[in-house]
Predict the structure.
Amino acid sequence: MNLNQEQLDLLEKWLDDPSFHNWAKQTNDTDIAHWEHFFNLHPRLQALGETGRSLVIGVPFQKVPVDESEDRAALDQLLQRLEQKGGSGRTNREARLRKLRPGRRWIAVASIILVLTIGWGIYRSEFANKPIQLSTDYGEQYQTQLPDGSLVHLNANSRLTYYPDKPRKVWLEGEAFFEVQKKAATGATFQVITEDLAVTVHGTAFNVNARNDQTKVFLEEGKVSLQVADPERSRIDMQPGDLVSYSKKQNNLLENQKDVSALESVSWKDGTLIFKETPLSEALPEIEEIYGIEFVVLEEKLLDETIGGGVPIRDLQVTLQTLRDVYGLRIEADGNRYLISGVE
């Protein structure tokens, strides 16, 4: 970015402001909110702000009292090394030094250091553009904290993707429970994107299940809004206890329930699926997704049979034994398939 004199003066002013450093490093909510508001009011200065951010992040600035002659000598030495390759003479170097006011010297040194470390900058930029992916295997759960402080509990056979420079925007395949860290000062939102819809939240706790060509969202506390894949549908605002299910494939709002029990919707976090007189046609697919297995129901009428209560999901054999002993299902293994022939 080529800077004119006015931009240099403004950049120097910002770099002398501790609040600008806090915004650049994302370390103080009040300062972050102040500068975000400033750049929203002055969008033409956004690029200059990003240049300043690059200087702050790229170089750990620390003002220390040094003798001015030492400061000048250090800068002169750096410029001399650069000019040995460029063929510039002493006269040009002195002319440039005379133009540098004392307050500018540290900016010049920082810029030179930034140029000398451009290889690292390119590497870091490429790293920031590479997505981070968290995934779980069949029968496995995983809990982690995102860079913004939000907690994620990932269910089995699920995948969460985000970019290091935008940790409050994630993509989900499978199921996860989120406890989002509030950003009260900035009002920054947290977004979960699935094949069917986008969930936009502030600080809240909610569950997202994106399986079987549909996405179910259960809100435990706080407030979220959903924007489904169909642009003609209006936004759906949810309250605690709401359960919404939407299918992009069917282009249909499948469920919109109120006052749903959290016990049923998020019990998987504690290693148990809770069913409330749920037909096998709905219960068995949930277990299939967790373990990567297939149930084959030999008689279609069995799909209407219901189960009510808990099914442990930490271990496949324990799950199968529970279905046999507690719910009376006759189950036989056939490779990776499990045949259900009846109910005792």
